[in-house]
Design goal:
This protein is α+β, with helices and mostly antiparallel strands. The longest helix has 57 residues.
């Protein structure tokens, strides 16, 4: 007897019985202490059983078993040689194995039974099939290709197309001059080439077109008389039905879309929609943010006769609860600044925001969301992949996730809310975009604009409150816990439930922290008139107490950093130290701009510059006319002065200027008195003339009266 000392047993070792060579066992697991292992018979459909390592070593010492180096189930196959159905079956079984083959739980009968039931439900397979996959996996070497089906043992021609000597199918009812034939390997190659060349292209022609091009290229000849290509009827020609049959046999519908329209179009509009954004979010705290252009034209809050165009609307939506958690509205283009506005609104108290920015009262429970998420889902917009956003999310410990390019459906919850909100309010709003613009008889909807940015924002806030608190999500996938706790599928209730369960890892942020991390920062100038920022002047208690403005007048202006809210120019913020801020408000003469937005002030300034540019011609014409009038008056004065000159010079009495001044005053007084006397004489003459006219009229009336009386006597 040969004694084997310190024999090492490892997973996948094959142990063969010396008495029965067909009895081969495979080691499928060895515990960490190297005391117990599990074996499975590779020739039988049975689950593994446990065996002590010392017993196996004893069998080795007695010569009852030996190690086998050749695995009867070992296969070597190239991926290209596998059929689509083989790959599909193998990959599905492999996913199942990866899910349930947990060690050591899978070797416990009770736990294995539970895992099999779960996999059966998840993969829509019978428990018998799941067990078959498990046993095949263990017995055939515990690799991916061990799960391949045994199609190679089925029939002799599997994997090969059947050969035909004549055209398959029934005979034609009517004869034709065109000959038909059976499909050969050469014809198959022609069909493949024609499909790739004429059908799988971006211009997306019809399959009939590809067939016609194939016939023209491969089954035609040049006509000697006309020079055109005509059918070569002397040889068999592929029929359209044969062409269509092999197209359907070789290519699946998604393959055609992939080739003709591209992978992006397929993923966006044709892929299966079996998943759910709610499942992917794994609880509240994953916010999707996106922007769009509003469907309404707005007017300036400073002058309602000025149309400022359409606004940019940012929405931030919690994916799990479908709650709108943030809103940003402005006329600034999609940029880092407009993004900051939306994020600041998302993280701050909504009641305070509405009161401070919109002068709008809402209840504490209307929009009770002021939390910082753990993940921000964006779509690779320029402002969303900038260093500016990266700095913000790093400071706030937020994970940023960007979807693939041109893949808006990956954050469909946010995209859908844009459509819902704008479609709901557009019929109510004058100035909204209409489809009949520029058509005959159509009206210019831009001329009907009446809402300013603040009023439009108030309307959007009302829509957000409605959808958060009253929108019943009939297709929302409620969890079993939600059903047990009778949670209605309303966004705000789902959000509160998730917040109560603590499955979102949300955080709060103080207003000072929002100002420091979210609000944009810029330079302001301390001047004698106040703190100059954005063409406006501000003041604060600290500036008055420390006499900043007096010092600026004495010592000169100086620069300082300020934080500002782009949605409101009413206040700016000065950081005193790492914990405290000073709030600066507009000085009294600029209070008229309190409700204006920064963009509106910029727009107003641009309009003034435009008006100034348009008025340059009139201004210069007026200046030239003034110069000519002055020159004319001076010229007349010089001519009058020459009349009093002696030898070309006018004597100037410069010694008695004071006496001359008094004489001139007396002359002016006499002239003014003469004018007044002349006006009085004119008034008296007018009165006398009026009296004379009255007398003359009375005499004429009396004379006529006497004449009438005489006539009556006669």
């Amino acid at each position: 007897m040969v004694v084997i000392i310190d024999m090492q047993l490892v997973i996948n070792d094959l142990l063969q019985s010396t008495e029965n060579p067909d009895h081969i066992q495979r080691i499928v697991w060895v515990d960490n202490k190297n005391q117990l292992c599990f074996l499975v018979n590779i020739r039988k459909l049975s689950f593994p059983y446990s065996e002590g390592i010392h017993n196996i070593e004893a069998s080795f010492n007695r010569g009852e078993i030996i190690k086998v180096k050749t695995d009867p189930w070992a296969i070597s196959v190239d991926e290209e040689d596998l059929s689509e159905s083989e790959i599909e079956i193998r990959d599905k079984a492999w996913r199942l194995i990866n899910q349930i083959c947990l060690t050591p739980e899978i070797f416990d009968p009770k736990q294995r039974s539970a895992l099999i039931k779960i996999a059966s439900k998840d993969f829509a397979l019978s428990t018998k099939t799941v067990r078959k996959y498990l046993i095949r996996y263990w017995t055939r070497g515990m690799i991916k290709n061990a799960l391949l089906p045994d199609f190679n043992n089925c029939g002799k021609q599997y994997g090969m197309d059947r050969k035909y000597n004549k055209k398959a199918g029934r005979k034609f009812a009517y004869s034709s001059s065109i000959q038909r034939g059976a499909i050969t390997d050469e014809w198959k190659e022609i069909i493949r080439i024609s499909l790739e060349k004429y059908y799988f292209i971006r211009s997306k022609p019809s399959l009939k077109y590809a067939y016609q091009q194939m016939v023209k290229e491969y089954f035609s000849k040049e006509d000697e008389k006309s020079g055109y290509k005509v059918l070569d009827v002397e040889k068999p020609i592929i029929s359209y039905d044969q062409f269509y049959y092999w197209y359907r046999k070789w290519y699946k519908p998604e393959d055609a879309i992939h080739k003709r329209e591209g992978r992006r179009e397929f993923l966006q509009n044709y892929r299966a929609i079996t998943g759910s954004a709610t499942e992917d979010s794994m609880g509240i705290g994953t916010y999707a943010i996106d922007a769009t252009i509003g469907d309404i034209y707005l007017v300036s809050s400073l002058d309602r006769n000025i149309v400022i165009g359409r606004s940019i609307v940012y929405l931030c939506v919690d994916i799990f609860s479908r709650t709108i958690v943030g809103l940003g509205v402005g006329i600034e283009n999609m940029s880092g600044q407009s993004l900051r506005v939306a994020l600041a609104n998302t993280f701050e108290n909504k009641k305070d925001f509405c009161k401070r920015t919109l002068d709008m009262e809402i209840g504490n429970d209307d929009w009770p969301i002021h939390y910082v998420p753990h993940t921000l889902l964006a779509d690779r917009g320029s402002e969303l992949i900038s260093n500016e956003l990266t700095q913000i999310v790093e400071n706030l410990n937020i994970k940023i996730q960007n979807t693939g390019s041109y893949r808006p459906e990956l954050k469909s919850v946010c995209e859908k809310y844009f459509h819902i909100v704008q479609q709901h309010i557009s019929p109510f709003l004058p100035g909204s975009i209409q489809k009949d613009y520029m058509k005959r008889g159509g009206q210019d909807y831009r001329k009907k604009a009446v809402l300013n940015l603040s009023e439009y924002t108030q309307i959007l806030v009302r829509c957000v409150l409605y959808y958060n608190n009253h929108n019943f999500l009939s297709d929302y996938p409620l969890t079993q816990n939600m059903i047990d706790e009778k949670i209605r599928p309303i966004p705000i209730e789902i959000f509160k439930w998730g917040l109560h369960k603590g499955n979102g890892q949300l955080r709060t942020m103080l207003l000072d922290a929002i100002r420091s991390n979210i609000y944009p920062k810029s330079q302001a100038t301390v001047t004698p008139k106040g703190i100059h920022f954005g063409n406006l002047y501000y003041t604060c208690s600290k500036a008055v107490k420390e006499r900043w403005f007096s010092n600026a007048r004495i010592q000169g202006n100086w620069k300082m950093e300020v934080y500002y809210n782009p949605q409101s120019v009413a206040t700016i913020y000065i950081r005193i130290d790492r914990q405290n801020y000073e709030v600066c408000s507009l000085i009294e003469q600029y209070e008229m701009y309190r409700d204006a937005k920064e963009e509106e002030l910029v727009s107003l300034k641009e309009n003034l510059r435009l008006q100034k540019a348009e008025y340059v011609e009139a201004q210069m014409n007026g200046a030239m006319q003034l110069a000519q009038d002055i020159e004319s008056i001076v010229k007349q004065a010089k001519e009058k002065t020459k009349d009093q000159s002696l030898n070309g010079e006018v004597p100037k009495d410069i010694k008695n200027i004071r006496e001359n001044r008094e004489k001139e005053r007396e002359v002016l007084k006499r002239e003014q008195q003469a004018v007044i006397d002349q006006q009085n004489i004119g008034k008296q003459l007018n009165k006398v003339n009026h009296d004379l006219e009255s007398v003359n009229v009375l005499d004429i009336f009396r004379k006529k009266q006497k004449e009438v009386l005489r006539d009556e006597d006669k």
